[in-house]
Specification:
globular; about 230 residues
Length: about 230
């Protein structure tokens, strides 16, 4: 029986890697007594996968995990069992056996991110907005990246402008938030760190203190992607 679950990853737990996130779920599943199925062979492992790896240091309000359990298992009961076993910052928010069989990654066309600029490290919101506006007025927003060519790695410049769909600013008590909708999914993906490099780091801004959170995603028909 296949289950699909949505979970949040927020707070200090954002600093664990994708592989450690999978190991965390492996241990929580065993502690909770979830009737998960295992692969066969010399190195059996739990039948579990996570759709979109999160970069270390990034939070998310909606991540998707698929797992295979014994027939007849109750998705809501498994959700409750896992939430009892998971650490602070990880929470299962949805669980169902009735889901779109197409993978989440294949369905996604764009994703909204929240970039939070703490006031303790960054200038006024007006300065940040002006930088973003100046960047978007250019014909191209070029970002350098390493690319493999044969046995060598070369540095190429990539124009990221057409991967930026919208920008929306919100001033908060302790800083400023930028909500950006970026291209995502199997047909092209603008990584949030490259977005920050193109709009802010290229203008002398230290992007190390900017907090990133993945909010939600949409398909090519502008329908929000859920389970």
């Amino acid at each position: 029986m296949q289950l699909r679950m949505a979970f949040k990853k927020t707070g200090m737990i954002k600093f664990i890697s994708h592989l450690d996130t999978i190991r965390l779920f492996n241990r929580a599943i065993q502690r909770a007594g979830v009737p998960i199925l295992w692969s066969e062979g010399f190195n059996p492992h739990q039948k579990l996968s996570i759709a979109q790896p999160l970069s270390v240091g990034m939070e998310s309000e909606f991540e998707v995990m698929d797992l295979e359990v014994e027939d007849g298992a109750d998705p809501e009961k498994i959700k409750a069992m896992l939430n009892e076993a998971l650490p602070e910052g990880m929470e299962i928010i949805e669980a169902t056996a009735d889901f779109d069989p197409k993978s989440v990654f294949e369905r996604i066309a764009k994703t909204e991110y929240r970039f939070f600029f703490p006031a303790a490290h960054y200038g006024s919101a007006d300065e940040l907005k002006k930088m973003a506006e100046d960047a978007m007025e250019q014909d191209e927003i070029l970002v350098r990246r390493r690319k493999k060519k044969g046995k060598k790695r070369i540095v190429v410049e990539e124009d990221i402008k057409d991967g930026i769909f919208s920008l929306k600013w919100k001033e908060e008590a302790s800083g400023t938030s930028l909500y950006a909708v970026l291209r995502a999914g199997a047909n092209g993906n603008l990584r949030p760190d490259r977005f920050l490099m193109g709009l802010f780091e290229s203008r002398g801004v230290d992007i190390d203190y900017i907090q990133i959170r993945r909010i939600k995603s949409w398909d090519g028909d502008d329908h929000e992607v859920r389970l």
